[in-house]
Amino acid sequence: MCTKKNIIQFLALLFFPFFSWAQTIETIEDDLLFSINRIDSFAYLSLRTDETAFDSLVTENVILKQKIIQYALANKEMLTFDFPKLKGYQFYKATSPDKTFCIFSWNLRTGGSMQFYDNVFVYQQYDKMYTKTVEREEGTPGGFYSEVFQLTDELNTFYMGYENRILSGRDCYQAIHIFDFEKNNFDFNLKKIKTKAGYTNTLGFSYNFFSVVKHKERPIKLIYFNKTQQTITIPLVDINGNVTSKTIVYKYDGDYFLKQ
Q1: According to a count of CB atoms within 10 Å of the terminal CB, is the N or C end of the chain lower?
Q2: Are the CB atoms for 201 and 177 separated by under 8 Å?
Q3: 98 lies in a domain?
Q4: pLDDT for 138
Q5: 257-259 and 193-195: which strand pairing?
Q6: In-domain check, residue 112
Q7: pTM of this structure
Q8: 107 and 115 in contact (C-beta within 8 Å)?
Q9: Is residue 226 in some structural domain?
Q10: Could you please report the per-residue DSSP string of the chain?
Q11: What's the structural domain count of the chain?
C-alpha cells in the first residue's frame, strides 16, 4: 500500500537536486547548511498549524538524508571534516578515533517536547565508502550520537556509539550501542555486553534531566569509557529518575563487558 509517508519520500527523491561529485568539502558543508536552514524554516511554519509546511518539513529531512548519503559515498573527507558551520543547528557528527567510522545525526524538528532524530552511519573499509541507515517505526523518537568510542580485541575492532534521547522536557535517555561492520554488512546488534537479562548490544538508562541540569557541558555527559582499563561507567539512577553519585562499571574481559 502506498502511504502518505511513501509519497513524500518519493517526491523528495524525485526533486533531490543534482550535485557535482567533485564538490569540495566546504561546498558540501554549505549545501547541508542550506537544507538545515530550510528545515528550520518549515519547522517554524508548521508550528502555525500549516499542514503543507509540515509535509515540506518531512520532505526536506529526506533530502538532507540523501545528501549526506551521496556525499559520503563520493567524498572521504565526510569522515574527517568537522563541519564547523553546522554546529548550533542541532546537527551532530560523532567520529571514531581511527577516523574510519562516523555517525551523522540531526533533529527532524517534527516533534514537540519529545525530539525526533535521524542518523546516517558512514564508514570506510578497504578504501571504499559505505553508508547505512535505520528505518524506525512511526512515533519512535531516535536520538543523536555525541561520541564514538572504539575497542580492539583479538579478533577485530568494534565501535560504541553514545546516544542521547530527549523524551520530554524532563525525561531523557542515554545509552551505549555497539556496532561492527564489514563491507556491506553493518552489524547493529553486536552483543558484547552481558547483563542479568542476557547478552545485549545496548547499555542505557532513563533519567530526570533536572537532576543534572547544573552540569556545564552540553550535551550532558553521564557515560564514560576508559580505553586503558576497557571499562564503561554509567550512573545509578534512583526510583524517581534522579542521577546519583553512585556508578556501575562494566569491564571488557576479551569477549564481553561484564558488570563489576
Answers
A1: N
A2: yes
A3: no
A4: 83
A5: parallel
A6: no
A7: 0.92
A8: yes
A9: yes
A10: ---HHHHHHHHHHHTPPP--TT--HHHHHHHHHHHHHHHHHHHHHHTTT-HHHHHHHHHHHHHHHHHHHHHHHH-THHHH---GGGTTTTEEEEE-TTSSEEEEEEE-S--SSS--EEEEEEEEETTEEEEE---PPTT----EEEEEEEEE-SS-EEEEEEEEEE-SSSEEEEEEEEEEEETTEEES----EEETTEEESEEEEEEEGGGSTT--SSS----EEETTTTEEEEEEE-TTS-EEEEEEEEEE-SS-EEE-
A11: 1
Count of beta carbons in the 10 Å neighbourhood of residue 106:
24
197: in domain: yes
**pLDDT score at 8:** 52
93 burial level (CB within 10 Å; 0-12, 13-18, 19+): buried
Mean pLDDT, the chain, as a whole number?
91
Separation CA 116–CA 139 (nearest Å): 9
Q: Which residues of the chain have pLDDT under 70?
A: 1-22, 49-50
pLDDT on residue 183: 82
Domain hosting 237: range is: 138-260
Which pLDDT belongs to residue 47?
84
Taking alpha carbons only, the member of 12, 143, 27 closest to residue 78 is 27
CB 177, CB 193: distance < 8 Å:
no
Q: What pLDDT is recorded for position 2?
A: 46
Calculate helix-pair angle for 4-14, 51-74, nearest 10 degrees: 50
